[in-house]
Design goal:
It is built from twelve helices and eight strands. The chain is an alpha+beta fold and 297 residues long. It folds into three domains: 147 residues, 2-Layer Sandwich (Dna Ligase, domain 1); 56 residues; 62 residues, no CATH class. A hairpin with a 2-residue loop joins strand 3 and strand 4.
């Protein structure tokens, strides 16, 4: 994608695609929802466009994926979630996104969802493939299969396509949710501290910010609960998969986080009516949530 000397707003394309900062993601959309709220409040979040839940619903229907997921046997959850190569993006979604990317004028882009992050995407086909992969995330497909098997509507999630920065300096706020001392070497330390404070105020809770310094100013690149980083969560997920169930129960019993808080801490941790996950799956999900809150993880 070619760069641009101006900063136009991406086009508004109805219910499928909205500029980041217009509230299209919703408050329950995890990282994408948080960045949407921060951008809407005027904080320095890199520009982007949000593929809405309506776009996700269109993808499920027009690709035929919803029908195939609805017919999946419960014992085949894992194999069904490994991927659906015959589930393409519709022409309407592709055209809307291509138009938005042309207006965005980014040399490379990030694709973000509650299930992962893909970066260094410099071609339109790579970005389209990453969007499709975000809607085919195995854990998300499993949730959709369970919901459809229980007669409920499948969960949907927005996907953010965002301009990727190349910061001179980047990192996360420290254990006290402050800018680390290395930032003293750059001008505007006070500006960074104000940005961090305002982000907490907008979101209404303590957060750990990923920040970057580019072009003489600070930017918010990412966000997570205190103590959590994406790499750490992936590492803990692999660790939890190897634990005995009794060990998981011991971790939960020793945790200061109540079960009531865990249930509402993330979409994956919720136990909803008709949820057909096994007891072991739920316990492992909660264990991962607890361990992910450890500082540095």
């Amino acid at each position: 994608m070619r760069g641009s000397g101006h900063r136009p707003r991406p086009p508004v394309t109805g219910e499928l695609l909205r500029p980041l900062g217009e509230g299209a993601a919703g408050r329950d959309a995890g990282l994408v929802g948080a960045l949407d709220r921060l951008a809407g409040a005027g904080l320095p979040v890199p520009e982007g466009v949000v593929l809405t839940r309506a776009a996700h619903a269109r993808f499920l229907k027009e690709s035929g994926l919803r029908e195939r997921l609805a017919g999946a046997a419960s014992e085949a959850l894992r194999s069904q979630a490994r991927g659906h190569p015959a589930a393409p993006l519709s022409d309407e979604i592709r055209e809307a996104l291509c138009e938005a990317l042309a207006e965005l004028g980014a040399r490379s882009a990030l694709v973000l969802s509650e299930y992962g992050r893909s970066g260094d995407l410099s071609t339109i086909p790579d970005i389209l493939d990453a969007v499709r992969a975000a809607w085919l995330a195995p854990r998300g497909l499993e949730r959709q299969i369970r919901a459809l098997a229980a007669g409920r509507e499948p969960p949907l999630w927005p996907v953010l396509v965002q301009k990727e920065l190349r910061p001179e300096l980047a990192g996360w706020t420290d254990a006290e949710l402050r800018a680390p001392e290395i930032c003293l070497a750059r001008p505007g330390r006070e500006e960074l501290e104000r940005m961090i404070s305002r982000a907490r105020s907008v979101l209404g809770r303590p957060v750990r910010l990923e920040w970057g310094f580019e072009g003489g100013r600070w930017h918010i690149l990412g966000i997570g609960p205190p103590g959590r980083s994406p790499a750490g969560r992936e590492r803990f997920a692999r660790y939890v998969d190897r634990l005995e169930l009794g060990t998981c129960a011991g971790i939960l019993a020793a945790s200061p986080v109540s079960l009531a808080a865990l249930v509402w801490s993330s979409a994956e941790s919720r136990v909803e009516a008709g949820d057909v996950r096994s007891f072991e799956e739920v316990i492992r999900t909660w264990t991962l949530e607890v361990l992910s809150r450890i500082e540095g993880g």
